[in-house]
Amino acid sequence: MTANPTTEDLLTIVRNSPAxxxxxxxxxxxxxxxxxxxxxxxxxxxxxxxxxxxxxSGRRGDAPLSRFYDTFIAPNDIHFHLEAEDIVQGLxxxxxxxxxxxxxGVTARAPMHxxxxxxxxxxxxxxxxxxxxxEVAPMFAQVGGISPAKLRVxxxxxxxxxxLQGVGGSLAFGRAVRSxxxxxxxxxxxxxxxxxxxxxxxxxxxxxxxxxxxxxxIAAGDTVTATGTVDGAHAVxxxxxxxxxxxxxxxxxxx
Length: 255
Hints:
Layout (H helix, E strand, L loop, with lengths): L6 H16 L3 H5 L2 E8 L7 E3 L2 E2 L4 E2 L2 H11 L3 E6 L4 E3 L2 E12 L2 E16 L2 E10 L2 H8 L4 H28 L5 H16 L3 H6 L6 E9 L2 E8 L2 E9 L6 E7 L1
Parallel strand pairs: 1-9
Antiparallel strand pairs: 1-2, 3-4, 5-7, 6-7, 7-8, 8-9, 10-11, 11-12, 12-13
InterPro entries: NTF2-like_dom_sf (IPR032710)
Organism: Rhodococcus olei
Protein name: SnoaL-like protein
């Protein structure tokens, strides 16, 4: 592989991820990630860190990512529904999707923005960071309930998380419910509206790129993502907020 992977090289790596997930091919999925990697799924939860010493396995490597796969991917049927063309910008790939997860007779759907940051690992493009922006509370609402199927799913999921993620990991996943929420979404809408009116500070924060047609806003952790358009073309906005002031402190627009 050359030092400069092509757009097609990057897209191939990224698209191989949902293909491996759908096929339940754990080895292929793990092989897409760089030796040192970060997976935030969901953003706002506890990141999965690879390449560091892992106390549970007693070694360095991909054991935390392997446990993540066994917890959230292996027992479920997961399908990615692409809502727009993938965006490639430098070594980043952004996907605008809805993910459908079937768990023991219960189906849940989550609107999602995925940001893949790639790197060259031993000359090959690999995923260095995967950030999955989706809202945990609506997912919980879809799988929670008192029907026999939902009770079985809840009990099975809880037991699996405790066994593979431990108490700390299970609690961290639950804490991902907390985000900048609706106030954060309002702040992003106000920022975009100010930029559209020509406000210099707002435009500078957006990199000089006014975003139009804002929709599909997702609040995860301290970040709000949104689908929109720039010059009529599909775009995705990633805005990070200060948790205390709920002001947007940085933004990236992919188009």
